[in-house]
């Protein structure tokens, strides 16, 4: 039987008392394995990776999750929420809608910063791996893209109403273009190990936003 890590015991025992032991353990498993799934992918993450990282036995993990797939789905939500939290914190501090739109480029341009899931964007990673192979994970990624697009569209339309952006701006095309540039930029940066390439692509986003200024 695997002996739990000291930090495993400490974490589970000191989390919010309002959570049940099962909920605390589930949260612990999700948080500790989040970066592993995001870096290695669903197929590349083995049960041994989970037991080694958490210090928990196979029985403990599957006593809280039905299978590895359920862990992966929960981890995706957790990683996505981490990014959304960072983005929203920056958006709230931005004064103009132009600056609010640029938040996405600035945050994703620094996807190696502390707080961002290790391994890059979980939407890109999950969509690439799960396409035509894992419907539940693919559906998670698809819904995340749709929510992202709607959020960008809202900012663009709000900018038009505020007089910052030109009337008649194609908000859907602009939103999709920003997402495509960000995700494509991260992919290029990762495979070429070139931050400079990502910087240039994010600069293109700034140029696109400047073009719709009123």
TrEMBL record:
Its taxonomic placement starts with: Bacteria, Pseudomonadati, Bacteroidota, Sphingobacteriia, Sphingobacteriales
Note the Gene3D superfamilies from the entry: Tetracycline Repressor, domain 2 (1.10.357.10)
Cross-referenced InterPro entries, in alphabetical order? Homeodomain-like_sf, HTH_TetR, Tet_transcr_reg_TetR-rel_C_sf, TetR_C
Q: Residue limits of the HTH tetR-type domain? A: 23-83
Q: Name one GO molecular function term.
A: DNA binding
Task: Tell me the domain of life.
Answer: Bacteria
> Which Pfam families does this UniProt record tie to the protein?
TetR_C_13, TetR_N
- DNA-binding region residue numbers: 46-65
Protein's name in the database? TetR family transcriptional regulator
Family matches, as SUPFAM superfamilies: Homeodomain-like (SSF46689), Tetracyclin repressor-like, C-terminal domain (SSF48498)
Keyword set for this entry?
DNA-binding, Transcription, Transcription regulation
Q: Which PANTHER family match?
A: HTH-TYPE TRANSCRIPTIONAL REGULATOR LMRA, TRANSCRIPTIONAL REGULATORY PROTEIN
